[in-house]
Amino acid sequence: MLRKAFAIAAALGLAAAAQASLAATTQATPKDVHWSFEGPFGRFDQEQLQRGYKVYHDVCSSCHAMHLMSYRNLGQVGGPFYDPKYPNPNDNPYVKAIVQDYKVADIDSDTGDVIHRPATTADAFVSPFANDAAARASNGGSLPPDLSLIIKAREDGARYVYSILTGYQPAPAGLTVPANRYYDPYMPGDMTSFWHGAGPAPTGGFIAMPLQLTPNRVTFDDHVMATPDQEAKDVVAFLAWASEPHQSERKQLGFAVMIYLVIFTGLLYASYRRIWRKVAH
Amino acid sequence: MSGHSTYEPKTGIERWLDTRLPIIRFGVDLGDFPTPKNLNYWWTFGAILGVCLVTQIVTGIILAMHYVPNATLAFDSVEHIMRDVNYGWLIRYIHANGAAMMFLAVYIHMFRGLYYGSYKAPREVLWLLGMVIYLLMVITAFMGYVLPWGQMSFWAATVITNILGSLPVVGPPITTWLWGGFAVDDPTLNRFFSLHYLLPFVIAGVVVLHIWALHVPGNNNPTGVNVKSEADTVPFHPYYTIKDAFGAGVFLILFAAFVFYNPDGMGHADNYVPANPLVTPAHIVPEWYLLPYYAMLRAVPNKLLGVLTMFGAIGVLFVLPWLDRSKVRSMRYRPTARIFLALFLLTCLVLGWCGAHEPDAAVIPGVGPGFVLVDYGINTDVWLSRLGTLLYFAYLIPVQLFLPLFETPLPVPESISTPVLSHPASVPAGATSAPEKKG
Lengths: 281, 439
Ligand code: HEM
Prior knowledge:
heterodimer, A: mainly alpha, two-stranded antiparallel ribbon, 7 helices, globular, B: 439 residues, mainly alpha, Cytochrome Bc1 Complex, Chain C, Helix Hairpins, 16 helices, 4 strands
């Protein structure tokens, strides 16, 4: 029903009007994946979030920061390690255990020296690099973007990131691939100047990130098979949650609000009919 | 404001207050205001706009408690609202979608005015004040969009301030003054925040004048015929308070559907990427409610003329009451004008579509740009924008001036109550002398 309402709104040219077309840049349409967190009643699967966090932690976090996330977020309502026994996420044993692996740069308040103290649950995720220049220096000049908002920062973000991660392909013959770059049809790009083959240039672009997700790249604690596809789906679910940690709460509250508004508006309509019943109009 | 007053102070203290500050009388008179009894649901959008304005102000004040107007901190402070502030996500989504919903409401409100001729004498000042409100809304929304300091915020600010810079003589100083420096940067963000906080209160002030100007001539109505007797009216309260409340309820359902189920649907993904002056986004587009103007701007090959066209598109609406030569207010009785208005609405929607696409994008997909006329193929967005711009002004100037010379309006009822008793569609034209009964 809601979908229909949206379709109507789109037809009116409201929601869809901002959709832009692409000029010389091309990009393959993201793969059609379905997510548990989609739609008005979508929810995150907590086990998937835990596996996704593990992929982020074991693989992505060596290059990508998530500076908008704090360790305590992992234990908050809706998070991967939420446990109703610990309403305060700072008491959550998983979160406390995760934090033990990290040190945070700080100033010693007695001496003023730069020190590294143990991280607390309130600290933001420790970034892999001290600054952007250091991140570029280690990645052949390219900056691995912060992943805190990545799913919202791309059009159709969940499908897009999933497709990027699983979409690496050997470059077709006739395509000159620059050093430290990889061909991925799902990455937006303009290949015309790199193309020497027959016909139109291939769709997609180059990405500076090497292929990350290989079979058994991580070992999942729940014995789910760590195929590249599974790893990609799980990490995307985690990133989707991190992009908007309150989204399940938003949909739940929305349901109550919609019911309330429909009843309330119905009552207003009944009052309206009653008040106007003696007036010819 | 409404002339006679029915208020009689009953208690001593009310009498005392009434001779010093007749504020209770004022409220009672507002409630008693005689309002035509045939207003349809298009008339509920004024009240809906009031609800929107209050919603924007209340949510905005709360957002400002957590937002930091600083180029290095603004983006993260918005995310702090989304993540850490209790129900911050809700407040921000209401504010962001509320702006778009308010534009939806204002466009309906304005088209209502166009259709029923509500801008014509004696309501010209009411219309002018409405246009002032609309102009202030555009400025406020633009400045608000800059505040999260994402890529679209930054680049929209850059494009628009540069556009203003193309105005002769005043342009460059205005741009520098808006920037507070030599490019869009921290000082720009700070003054935009300050003005974004200020302008809604200015709008609220103009709304008071707007309603004052409404209460002097009173409401227009779907027939466009003046109120002749008390039989044509009902007191505003409870008749229209309840009707407006119902209209607002329906509107809020649509609003909530966006807030809770598609809160970023009207936004752009790039605005979740922090502003970066070194990286230009592939497509810089304004929010949907400003797309038609953006299309007109790009339709004109000369930058200055483009800017003048864009401002002219708003400016010409200000003088509409003096361009329209027709004596008949409501388009219910102007079948030809009705067709032109429908085409005008279509033109605005097509211009919006054009604004969302690149100038060289194909209009009919798959057939190529076609024969090149001057600079672009005829099957391109830019040529459709040019056609749209032409039709936009054609409707607002020549059609308003000359259509009344050629059209034959249908007979107009003598009073509101006449067609109220027998709907015009079901009555042979000219049957305006149906027996008048008290409603
Ligand atoms: C914040 C924005 C606005 C608010 C809160 C507002 C509020 C109202 C209200 C409460 C009414 C009386 C109820 C009704 O007829 O709908 C009204 C009437 C009117 N408004 Fe607005 N308005 C706004 C913007 C505008 C704009 C942008 C225009 C057009 C330029 C406009 C033009 C009119 C006209 C012509 C009427 C008289 C309608 C009639 O009686 O037929 N208003 N407005």
